[in-house]
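Intended use. Records like the one below are meant for learning the mapping from a protein sequence to its folded structure. Do not use them to infer anything beyond what is encoded.
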Amino acid sequence: MHMLAPDLMHELELGVWKALFTHLVRMLYAAASDGSLAHQLDERFCQISTFGNGTIQNFSNNTSEMKKLAARDFEDILQCSIPVFDGLLPDEWDNQAVLKLLYRTAEFHAFTKLRLQTDETLSHLDLESCTERPSSEDANKLAKTQIKLNLLCKLVAVEESG
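Structure written out for the chain above:
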């Protein structure tokens, strides 16, 4: 039996998820350089009402800017991200890939919140971590998306330095 005691807040919520969310926001700016998709993302987050007694709180008007957010805010963003991102990206292949990534991230987050893993949950995680090799068409689309994102990152770096 193997034991793993991760620091969920720092490693997943403020580490992996924050980096992934930042990447997704950059993809929105790459798809629409005028910021309209990021603005639409913010509007969608604002439409989500509170849930439970302090479970999901109201989102700020500028969720995409990620200013003054605590770990609980990033957790709330993750839990509400699938319907918010659904249909934002103009390319359907990109949209489906992002939704699947968000689902897997939320699922992994939910499993880590269990704090104790059983043979069934470990088996499920093993099966889910095995991925199929993408088709050549999907690989080409993925490469084009990565090129767009790299160009955007270079533009942002030039603007920040100048």
